[in-house]
Write a structure and sequence with these properties.
alpha/beta, 224 residues, TIM Barrel
């Protein structure tokens, strides 16, 4: 069962503004990346269901986070169907992220009272996601759809909470572009966790990059 309640998780996504997303088949590496992100200030983290051993690693991460990372909302990403969603919810996922809008996943999340964050790329998809119970949606792929889409959506749908994934960089320009367009938060993967940084075990770099990204978001918001 989730350890962070639904409303708190949704607030956490916005408070820091950043959702790191990462997968690794090695628990020790995943644990160190998760810890570095937490130490950098992230309070929501998406482990992606993208490869061998993902479930086993996630179960260990949940246990580790409960003991060592208080106040962290740890969710699962790349969930395609209700059965997989239920499996990870039973393991303790605080939220479920999907690359597209599958109402079956939304129904499972609704019953568990945890956030369902489905992928969208059109106004119609946003409408169906919200109708299916989503309170936050994921714009993916961000680099294809573009920040102008977020800004345009906020016209007819001003209250929609959009987390952008894909095409977001931990730079002042990128943060200003997406949050200036009206993003609720941003998801970042490879830009926070480059392969060479992981292979070198440079977790201090990750911690610093997460902290820097959160600081840039705070700075932007303070000046709006």
């Amino acid at each position: 069962m989730a350890t962070i309640d639904k409303d708190t998780t949704i607030i956490l996504l916005n408070e820091t503004g950043i959702l790191p997303l990462f997968y690794h088949a090695d628990f020790e590496i995943a644990k160190k990346v998760l810890t570095a992100s937490y130490n950098g200030g992230a309070r929501a983290f998406e482990f992606t269901n993208r490869g061998a051993n993902a479930y086993e690693v996630f179960v260990e991460l949940i246990a580790y986070a409960l003991d060592n990372l208080p106040g962290l909302a740890l969710g699962i990403g790349t969930v395609y169907d209700g059965e997989t969603a239920q499996k990870y919810i039973d393991a303790g996922a605080d939220f479920v992220v999907a690359p597209f809008t599958n109402p079956e996943v939304g129904e499972v999340c609704k019953k568990a009272n945890i956030p369902w964050i489905p992928g969208i790329a059109t106004l119609t998809e946003i409408f169906h996601a919200l109708k299916g119970g989503a309170e936050v949606v994921k714009l993916f792929p961000g680099e294809v759809v573009g920040s102008a889409f977020v800004k345009a959506v906020k016209g007819p749908m001003p209250h929609v909470k959009i987390v952008v994934t894909g095409g977001v960089s931990p730079t002042k320009e990128s943060i200003e572009e997406w949050f200036g367009a009206g993003a609720y938060g941003v998801g970042m993967g490879s830009n926070l966790f480059p392969k060479n940084v992981i292979s070198e075990g440079n977790y201090a770099w990750i911690e610093a990059k997460v902290a820097e990204s959160i600081a840039l978001i705070k700075e932007f918001r303070a000046n709006v």
